[in-house]
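Late entry, evening session. Most of the bench is empty. Finally got around to the prediction I had been postponing all week. Sequence below, unchanged from the version circulated by S.P.
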Amino acid sequence: MISFESVTKTYPGPRRSAADVVAVHDTSFNVDTGTITVLAGSSGCGKTTLLRMVNRMVAPSSGRVQINGDDIAHMNPVQLRRKIGYVMQHAGLLPHKTVAENIAVVPRLNGATRAEATRSVDRMLEMVELSADMADRYPAELSGGQAQRVGVARALADEPRILLMDEPFGAVDPLVRTGLQQQLIDIQHELGTTMLFVTHDMSEALRLGHEIILLAKQGRIMQQDSPTRLVEQPANAFVENFLGLNAVDKTLTTRTTEDGRTMVVDAHGRPAGFLEQA
């Protein structure tokens, strides 16, 4: 489990005499092991700051983050990051390395032999549904969707127990995004990885999350709940506004599909996402 305990993050003001800028203020929550937890909210609400605290890319000004009861402030940051997968919006692939070399980076850093790393590459390519002949391509030869798949494969290559994802599908077209979302659900089911996922897209949050944490400015938690409860029992007007529940043309309702899944639809009957994974 990942625990955030009263974390605050401030930055110096733009001028010497200016007050500090508060990115996150006194935020506490837990991320359950083996689940996808989504941090959702508008730009500037602190969701990426919170995500980056987990691998110590951002250090809290006060408070602490624990992984399975251990304070990460006492861990070697380099070793910590090698044990945590990280996927960002534009994949962040090394341009001078092939797909195979990109995927093999962390296993090799962690001591895997060349043969072991090759097996990891083959397994990851299969898992993200990329053909073996993609292994020798360079990032510049990939489409946006392919690059993101490689980014996910690289993050999972050494089988980390935690995967951090910072709006990883935001730069791809809607059709590709839907496929990547389903692929992520399938991978999480197979591996049982604990995932912390950042997005401002509520349709994406509703589809992916076992639990959604909706944030206002400075990381204030407006509601932390299952997708079903978030839609059916919004905690306050902020949640209703963010979900569009009080807009005539954006009213969200639920509908049960033939296979028993709960789907969210808008006022026009268009699917907005599934509340619970099958």
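Two things to note before I forget:
The chain has nine helices and 13 strands.
The domain at 2-83+161-225 is CATH 3.40.50.300 (Rossmann fold).
Will write this up properly tomorrow.
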